[in-house]
Design a protein that fits this description.
single chain; 256 residues; alpha+beta; Thiol Ester Dehydrase, Chain A; 7-stranded antiparallel β-sheet; 6 helices; globular; binds octanoyl-coenzyme A; mitochondrion inner membrane; Acyl-coenzyme A thioesterase THEM4; apoptosis; transit peptide; mitochondrion
């Protein structure tokens, strides 16, 4: 009985997690979790990014706030103009803005229980700073055709490493986040197995940079991603990285 209840919860949460992906209308790979937990998800299942849960609409942190600099806003407007517009019918625009919330599970139908099982107080650490602009301000745009993501990232004053510059761990975090968003779109549930980073030039604190993430190779469960962090005009290379992500089962997350 308990097993069946957990299975049902996991099923709902898996659907909810996948539904978090924005404007995805494509044939999804079957979810590895399904056979493990004793049910089947239709591999031809099509997903639409309307908020699938309750009437409560959580705060979307990828939308502009007053801390965003004019350069951040300029780039946001640029990429936004390349996106499918809401209510604009079947646009052929290849870009979509990826919404971003401070928790993945709490607001999902059935996910609330799973969230308690995983960890009731869990929060996405890039999205839980009270002061706007103090740490990670970012928005990720996905190009479905090119299988790439571009993130506009403004690094706040709490991300200092060397005086006046962004901490290497914070740079790794944003790279992992952007590459993770791309691989989640491509492969469902994933985890970073390996991240190799070359820091080429420091990122001034408070500046706006672009984080580009591109699919290199996809082989069964393995997804290889190439990343570059550049200045906002693309003239300066700050960081280069490669990441290996592995598709995992939901069971892997809950200790199965
Ligand atoms: C929206 C927000 C997005 C945020 C994204 C953030 C993403 C993250 O940060 S995830 C957190 C950090 N990552 C982790 O904690 C992962 C910890 N590691 C693990 O859980 C496991 O090692 C995991 C899942 C990566 C792989 O384990 P498992 O599924 O058992 O794979 P395993 O069978 O060992 O290996 C599968 C294949 O991958 C290869 N592989 C596994 N790990 C590595 C590695 N580190 N380097 C190279 N190859 C590897 C294996 O060699 C094997 O290859 P082959 O099939 O050719 O023999």
């Amino acid at each position: 009985m308990f097993r069946r209840a957990v299975t049902a919860l996991c099923y709902t949460a898996a659907r909810a997690l996948l539904a978090l992906r924005p404007h995805v209308h494509r044939h999804l790979p079957s979810v590895r979790t399904a056979p493990l937990l004793g049910f089947n998800l239709d591999s031809r299942w099509s997903v639409t990014m309307t908020w699938p849960f309750s009437s409560f609409q959580p705060h979307d942190y990828s939308l502009p706030n007053p801390s965003w600099s004019p350069e951040m806003m300029r780039l946001y407007d640029h990429y936004n103009s390349l996106c499918e517009q809401e209510g604009g019918g079947k646009s052929k625009a290849p870009w979509v803005r990826m919404p971003s919330y401070n928790r993945l599970l709490k607001y999902a139908k059935g996910g609330q229980c799973l969230s308690k099982m995983v960890q009731a107080k869990a929060r996405l650490f890039t999205r839980n700073m009270k002061e706007e602009g103090a740490s990670f301000e970012y928005v990720v745009f996905l190009n479905k055709q090119e299988k790439m993501c571009t993130c506009i990232f403004q690094a706040g004053h709490l991300l200092e490493g060397p005086p006046g510059y962004v901490h290497g761990g914070a740079i790794a975090t944003i790279i992992d986040t952007v590459a993770g968003a791309l691989t989640t779109y491509l492969g469902g549930l994933v985890m970073t197995a390996n991240l190799t980073i070359n820091y080429r030039s420091p990122i001034p604190l408070g500046s706006v940079v672009l984080v580009h993430s591109l699919l290199e190779k996809m082989e069964e469960r393995k997804i290889l991603i190439f990343c570059q962090v550049t200045s906002s005009d693309g003239s300066k290379l700050h960081t280069e990285a490669t990441g290996l992500f592995l598709s995992i089962s939901l069971g892997h997350l809950i200790g199965g």
